Amino acid sequence: MTTFGPLLDVRPLLPRERRALLDLLGSLDPPDWRRATACPGWTVHDVVAHVVNDYVRRLAISRDGHESPEFDDGETLPEYIARINEEFVRAARQCSPRVLVDLLAHLGPELDALWATRDLDAPADLDVSWAATDRPSPAWLDLAREYTEFWVHQQQVRDAVSRPGADEPELFGPVIDAFLRALPSALRVENRPEGTVVRFDVRGEAGGTWHAVREGGRWLVDPGEPPDEPAARVAMDQDTLWRLATRGVSVENARRRSEMHGDRTLTDAATTLLAIVR
């Protein structure tokens, strides 16, 4: 086992997720673009603009080597990210929905071409802080994080306009898989004997079983059945899992929707799982 678990290659899924998003956006009426979303203060238009920002930012950094804006004095990482995201979204309110869709359709294949050249085992351009802060991230985890970002924002748009979709196991399953790579981070402050196991079951067609094991003084994660009897076990449905990981539901609500057995401290820690910068 390794810190981040086995390699997850999401590159074939990126065009499929984008196609589903573009099809959705092409079906929206003007009032739909003004609907509020789960992102506080952001409409559908704003969330789509944020996805454009994600595309632009990654091309600028990973393809062109462009330096990101500097932190303001005393600014934390969450504060920095919130500020630069808000700045782009506010500026993009000058753009029509058609312009935003055109930007996604044009820039998306540029990103696909970039990722196709990546050595997935090489160091990431941007570390995934919610997976670990004391180990460099591999490129594959960086790309998986980007995929979850795009998928989640598409779901936020779908929720806002009441049009479910893009939730078939082929597209949804890798999101859950990527989010469970945050399990060791959720457990990091819990010191347990070597070999202690925490099992996490995600119910639903896109779900499965993951486990974290205490090895070498840290928690490691792996998909599949654990090798030994778990000291703690959490079972949660797939919709609750992705919303918990992005704080679309609170930790308390997620626990009420779940089954938890064994070491209560470990189950409480596991259900603080977070896969965004916050």
Description:
The structure is a single chain. The protein has eleven helices and five strands; from the N terminus they run ααααααααββββααβα. By secondary structure, it is an alpha+beta fold. It has a five-stranded mixed sheet with strand order 3-2-1-4-5. The protein folds into two domains: 11-126 and 135-164, dinb family like domain (Four Helix Bundle (Hemerythrin (Met), subunit A)); 180-270, 2-Layer Sandwich (Nonspecific Lipid-transfer Protein, Chain A), CATH 3.30.1050. 48% of the residues lie in helices and 11% in strands. The protein has helices at residues 14-26, 30-33, 44-63, 77-92, 97-116, 139-161, 169-179, 183-187, 238-245, 251-256, 264-270; strands at 197-203, 208-215, 218-223, 232-237, 259-262. Helix 1 (14-26) runs parallel beside helix 6 and helix 6 (139-161) packs across helix 7 (169-179).
Give the overall pLDDT as a whole number: 96
Class based on secondary structure composition and strand pairing: alpha+beta
Query: What coarse outline follows from CA principal-axis ratios?
Result: globular
Largest sheet: 5 strands, mixed
Q: Layout of SSEs?
A:
Elements: H1 14-26, H2 30-33, H3 44-63, H4 77-92, H5 97-116, H6 139-161, H7 169-179, H8 183-187, E1 197-203, E2 208-215, E3 218-223, E4 232-237, H9 238-245, H10 251-256, E5 259-262, H11 264-270
Parallel strand pairs: 1-4
Antiparallel strand pairs: 1-2, 2-3, 4-5
Helix pairs in contact: 1-5, 1-6, 3-4, 3-5, 3-6, 6-7
Descriptive keywords:
single chain, 278 residues, alpha+beta, Four Helix Bundle (Hemerythrin (Met), subunit A), Nonspecific Lipid-transfer Protein, Chain A, globular
